[in-house]
Amino acid sequence: MGIIDRRGFVQFATAACFSQALQAKGVVTGGNAPLRTPPLGVFIKVNSEVTVNTAIQRVHDLGLPTCQIYFGNLSFEGVRPLKEALAKYDVEVTAVSEHNPGPRMFDFYQGPLTVGIIPFTNPNHRARIDALKRAADFARECGIPAVHSHLGFMPEDPNDPIYPHAVSAIREVAQHCKERGLMLLSETGEETPISMLRTIQDVGTGNIFVNLDTANLILSGKGNPVDAMDVFGHLVRGIHAKDGVFPTDPRYFGKEVPIGEGKVDFPALLMRLRQVNYTGAITIEREIEGSQQTKDILKSKLFLQELLNKTYIL
User: N or C: which end of the chain has fewer CB within 10 A?
Assistant: First the structure.
């Protein structure tokens, strides 16, 4: 090893101190540029029983800096209260989640007919497209960068007669989002990863990205999130941290379980996310209600933060 002169030593020491400071702030210094450790968040709902302020306060009380937000009845009257609550509690919304109107059935028989904007024979088809457009307008007013939704069961066969209708419907929403400088995040789960990639490419607006729900591919028997990263990892802009088991009844999806109790390999998944330089939020979603939901979210927070510290802060 050569001898380091005084100037070289000072530069080396300064760089080392800077690297340590970045790591202390949760910034990874590998690669060509610093990489922020993904912040954790939680999926929240606003409805007739939960006000905007209460929902955002809950995010703060859980000790989480981010959230995705769903409104049971989205109205532009909610713009001001949301902006005030976000400033008050220092919380960031990463996406507005929109799925209305009408019922959705997440199973193998009714799901393709009821979920999202792809089933063009659904009586709520046009209303859902319009609702997603309103969500985009709402998001822009609030300074939120994305709209998120289950777009529907994307056909595995591109020759399926439904497919051109699916592409057309998604393109209409995506173009509306693009004109407002927003991303459209497509939730995983109803299709294989390659079918989602094909659809995104065929829509072709350049602003559709993947919201990778870590459990949904497993729940629907369409794959697993770690392998799916090989297909669309470069398009992931949102994460729902959730766990589950594979389906065993051909009529129904598998069962969601608390994080750490299902089939999701979270250590491997976080490593894959780091490899594609993912720095967006990891949003915890637990699809139950009541005090047990809060307990599971807090447990998931500790579990995920420990993994993030091991994976991102090297």
Answer: N
